[in-house]
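Deliverable D5.2: sample structural annotation.
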Amino acid sequence: MSEKKGHKGEGHRQRLRERFLKSGLDGFHDYEVIELLLTIATPRKDCKDAAKAALAKFKTLQGILEASSYELCQIGGIGPKNSFGIKLVKAVSDRYREKKLIHKDPLNNSRELFDYLNHSIRDKTREYFKIIFLDSKNRVISTETHSKGTLTASSVYPREVVYSAIANNAAALIFAHNHPSGDPQPSPEDIAITRQLVYAGKVMGLAVHEHIIIGDSGYFSFADQGQISQMGRDYDSHMR
């Protein structure tokens, strides 16, 4: 009896894997990266056409990684099983960057802080508001996605933020959220909620070090612009 014939593209898949093991992703096209991810849970199916179709629909590698399982399954050749690799690698990457921050001072490791925030929330289609909890030595205790909003806003309540800070035994806080529009400039609502959070922190003895807005091609830092410290001074002057 003759040996069962392998699937179309079996040799191509093996060559992709050998290239990756030898040189990492250097020289790979984005569709080839997606193709490799699709093969993780697809042992006997050619994935090249599906990978190219996904890139055509979502435009970028980041767009594919941020797509929901439902959206991915609308692509011909992609189903719940072989979308597993795409969702897994995104989740692992997020966890890796988060863990790199734990027990470090993000104020002195600003590149790792920005990498984590940029990777985890930049390409979201809704606003995500994240809190980074710090101890008395400004080392990261943990991070939390506090809220997920609409296309234009997230729901942030200072009382709930303070409650989370106390639950995490935090001494200081860093806030961050994304702008799905891509423009990192703060809205009047962003300025107002930042002021409320700084004031709430003052009342509870929590230092607010930063609020960062992540956009497509950059970020806005309330601390760098002197607004965090100014809000703190405003609060102090009102309390005198």
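Annotation notes: The radius of gyration is 22 Å. Residues 1-5 have pLDDT under 50 and may be disordered.
The annotation will be released with the project's public dataset once the embargo ends.
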